Structures are given as C-alpha cells and as structure tokens.
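re: that chain from earlier
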Amino acid sequence: MRDLPKIILVFAAVDWPIYMRRPMVHALAEAAKPYGSTVVAVNRPLCFATTWFRKPNRIPELFGRPRLEKLANNLYLYSPRYFIHDQFANAVGPLEEINLFALRKSYRHLQKRLGITEPAPMIWFNYPQLGYVARLFDDSFCVFEIYDNLTDPDGNESNTVNRLEKKLRSRIDLLLTTSKKIHEKYAGPYRRSFMFGNGLSRTTYQRLSDPNVEALPEILDIPSPRLGYAGMISDRLDWRLVADLASAEPSWNFIFAGHMADDNIRNRMAAHPNVRFPGEYPQQDVPSISKSFDLGIMPYRDTPFFDFLNPLKFYELAAAGLPMVASPVEELRQFPDDLVRVVASNGVDVWREAIGNMLAADPAISAKIGPQTAAEFIWEDMTAALLKKITEEGG
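^ sequence. v structure.
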C-alpha cells in the first residue's frame, strides 16, 4: 500500500490558463479528494530573463508575490518564480540547478500558504522539456504523461526531445500514455507504464449526450449534408484534402466551428463556398454545435504524428451520437465501423466513399452506440481508478 501525498504538483508544457481547459486536471483533483490530497497546477516559467518579450502581459507579476489562485476545493493554480525559461535551462546544466533551487524555495512558500506539510509531493508532468522537475525531491513519486507522439506535426524526430526523454527515464515511477502506439514506442525502458487513454469529464459527457439539446439555428440554416468539426482550426487539419472534397462534392457543406489559429486558412479556402467558418463559440455551445451536424469529420494530416493520436474530438462526437469519418488514426480502429469510419489514407476518393456510406447509414445506430462508447471514457472514473491502482499496488 502507498499513501497518496498530500500535495500533487502538476506541471504543463503550455501556459496553465490554456491547459486548465483539459478536464483531466479537474478530474484528478476530484479523484484525489477522498485521499485528502490537494492538486496544484504549476504554471510555466515566469522569469526575469524572458518574460519581457515572451509574455509581456505577465510583466506585472514579476514584481509581485507568486500568484496562487483557488480553482476548486482542492485545486489551485500556482505561478512561482523561476530563474530562466526551461527551454534555455535544458541546454545548460547549472541553469537547471538554479531553476530547481528556486522551485524548492517557492514550494516551501506554497506549503505555508496552503497550510499543508508534505515533504515529497507527487510530481506529474507531460513533456520531456519539463523532465528536470522529477529531480525536485528525492522521495517524490513521479508520473510522466505522453499524450502526443514526441515529434513535430510532420513526424520528424527531435534530437533534443529524444535526449531529454532518455535523460529522465530513471527518475520516473509511472509512465502514462494516451494511445497504444505511443505506449508501444515509449514504454519499454520505463519501470512501470500504463495506457491511460483519453476521455471526457462527466459534466461534458452529460451535456453532449443530452437528447434535449437543441441545434444552433445559424448552423441549421446551412443546407444538409452538414459535415462538421468543432475545435481549434489550424494546420493540424488537412486543408488540401478539404479543398479537394469541397470541389468534388459541391452539395456537401464542410463546417469548421471554432477559433481560427491562422487567418490564412480562411483565405486558402475562399474559392470553396461550401467550406464554412461560422466563427468561435463559447465552450458551452459545443453540444448544440454537434447537434447541428449530420456527420462529424476529423480530417487530420496523414503523418506519423497524427497516426499516434487519440483525439479528444472522437469522444465528444461519440457522446453526441454522431457518425464520423476520420483520417488514418490507429487508435480509432478499435471502435465500431457503425460509429467511426477510419479511412485508409487521406485520398479524396476514399474519403468520398466513406462519407457517402456514413451519410446513407441509419443515424439511430450511432445515436445509440456513440454515447455508450463515450461513457466508458470518463475522466473522473479513469483518474479514480489510476489513483487506486497507485495506492493499492504501492506505486
């Protein structure tokens, strides 16, 4: 048996105001509550050397007390002081040591502000660049989570990332992965690993699967068939494929609802009036957006990076009961063809055939099996099972 530490420090590879949208962090706090543990999300470095040009909006924080924001009963967001951004510290050993010294000192202040004494908090992080935090405390239980293939979007390996990943292996007590392919690629050298997966918060699942949710009128005004994607609109999607499909099937309307990461995408699609960008919506509107689609599409780029994905989008669309067509993402092949058709490649002909078949199918089938499938991947249940496993098996 292992007692869960009173403090769990979770470090992210991106700024926490963005990463905190990931429901797993909130689910971890809920699962840790019965153990009397507090989850503290630790923000990215705010250092005197780089904040001036990297994050000018946070310059005032340099001269104040480290910020501690309470997000839930046992969940906090903490912005400590680092010496220098870890991107630079990774390359210079002494800078990493100074960062660790600053973090340990900041942690002592954090304990006082929380009123919790914990000499060896659990350390949880998600990117090799943050691997040095595994050396913060000798007796800490360290969890390393890999949720994407550690390459660039084109699938190219990074010598720096590979070096950092190999460097941290001996300090890791548990490796978590989100897909089988990631597990097969990285888990071997670690003393213990677990294929954790991806999923939805219980609240998100309930909202998406609610049969009483009404579709958005402005999207319903677009003629059927409406082939939809709701999320970040970026170059993660295969816009050449979308353009080819839009040209080949002018009666199909391709709808991309969400934040536009690059306005050039809109310009590139301007010649295709059936590729529509209705704009960005509040998160609470995602169920209504999904209800407005006839079919969900996940046209990710066909590269080794995306082949390793376990996309959150699948679980959202499944909870909404929508049939889907997806790029060749290996993790999605485990699910029923009646729910998601995973194409062999991003060729326009195979996509046209798959979309046509799914549009012709009985929508009642996906409406039934989609929510049933998504219900098996609820973050609160998954994290509770994980913490139970850690404590019962002694880590």
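The chain has 17 helices and 14 strands.
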